[in-house]
Write a structure and sequence with these properties.
Number of helices: 8
Distance between the termini: 116 Å
Number of domains: 2
Number of strands: 12
Structural class: alpha/beta
Shape: globular
Strand order of the largest sheet: 1-2-3-4-5-6-7
Largest sheet: 7 strands, mixed
CATH topology of the largest domain: Metallo-beta-lactamase, Chain A
Radius of gyration: 29 Å
Helix content: 40-55%
CATH class of the largest domain: Alpha Beta
Order of helices and strands: HEEEEHEHEHEEEEEHEHHH
């Protein structure tokens, strides 16, 4: 071919060929780079949307630096949303994450895990259960694959074993497919006295208490932000559930009031900015319950009479008063009649 062309024509043809090749090369590079950048941007944007949607759908908020809370709904345990009534959440340290309660089902536990992963890819080193009740503990299995240490009150392990049959009978549908006793996860680390857990430049204080709300109550304090995760030792808005000891709970509230904390997360209800704000409604209710139950006993009233007369008008404006108050009076009467 070259033999049919003059030298100048040959050079011109070669230059055109080179120019065409260069244009093709740069077009491919540009388009490839643009496509890659576009894919990256879409990926980042999708991740942002995903994280935002998780926060929105799972009602997640950062209530103090590194402390993330999912607020439970105020419904009775007969409601289909009964597995999502507790306040649960997590704390992020430099090295790892601690979970505070996991909700009342594997579904809620899974949603909590997804919300953690929307915030960090750090390992989950601890799952801390504040007590035995189903709405705080049945989501534990969702975290098994993360291989954390499960932490609880020194009496929690025994309580879990004693309640497995009860949970399987009453909350079978909350425990995933083909539930069995292995679906209910108890603690590896038992807290008998105040201890510290290190998340990496963020220490947590864990404190166990004698019988109060339950027989195995534990609190968590983030020492950096002085945030108290009180579990069910504090209820706000929703009426407290007395399953342990009225006098023991009042004593525990006095002990809690001595702690240096700035923000309080109750087991149920809204976050409080001071401890006194957190316990005001509950403390007044318990003191009334103590006094009125004692008065009923001294007058010779039977337990049913006490139930029908003590604060039937809900003077403290509790949510779910009708469902829980009679049980509280009954529990208080049983405890106080032998004083």
């Amino acid at each position: 071919m070259y033999g049919l062309l003059s030298l100048s024509q040959q050079n011109y043809w070669v230059l055109n060929l080179v120019e065409s090749a260069m244009n093709t090369f740069f077009n491919v590079i540009f388009r490839t780079s643009f496509t890659y950048c576009f894919v990256v941007l879409i990926s980042v944007f999708s991740s942002y949307i995903s994280a935002s949607e998780i926060e929105k759908q799972f009602n997640l908020s950062e209530i103090a630096d590194g402390n993330f809370l999912h607020t439970g709904v105020h419904v009775s345990i007969e409601d289909k949303r009964h597995d999502d009534i507790a306040n649960i959440g997590f704390i992020i340290g430099e090295n790892c994450v601690a979970v505070i309660d996991t909700g009342g089902s594997i579904t809620i536990g899974t949603k909590l895990l997804e919300s953690i992963r929307s915030k960090t890819d750090k390992p989950i080193c601890y799952v801390i259960n504040t007590h035995i009740h189903f709405d705080h503990i049945l989501g534990n299995k969702a975290f098994n694959k993360e291989q954390p240490k499960f932490v609880g009150h020194y009496q929690l392990a025994e309580a879990v074993e004693q309640n497995k049959s009860f949970f399987l009978e009453n909350y079978k549908n909350d425990l995933g497919l083909n539930p069995d006793e292995n679906s209910i996860i108890g603690p590896d680390i038992l807290v008998e006295k105040t201890i510290q857990l290190d998340l990496g430049e963020r220490n947590l204080t864990l404190m166990p208490f004698p019988t109060s709300h339950s027989y195995n109550d534990l609190i968590v304090i983030d020492n950096i932000t002085k945030t108290l995760w009180a579990g069910d030792l504090i209820f706000r808005q929703r009426i407290p559930s007395l399953t342990g000891s009225l006098k023991g709970w009042l004593k525990t509230m006095d002990d809690l009031s001595k702690l240096d904390v700035k923000k309080v997360i109750p087991g149920h209800g809204a976050v409080a900015d001071t401890f006194m704000q957190a316990i005001e409604q509950q403390q007044k209710y318990f003191l009334m319950l103590l006094e009125e139950t004692r008065n009923s006993i001294e007058k010779g009233a039977f337990i049913n009479d006490a139930i029908e007369t003590i604060d039937t008008g809900n003077s403290f404006n509790w949510l779910l008063h009708e469902q829980q108050h009679a049980g509280n009076v009954s529990k208080a009467y049983t405890e106080l009649e032998w004083e």
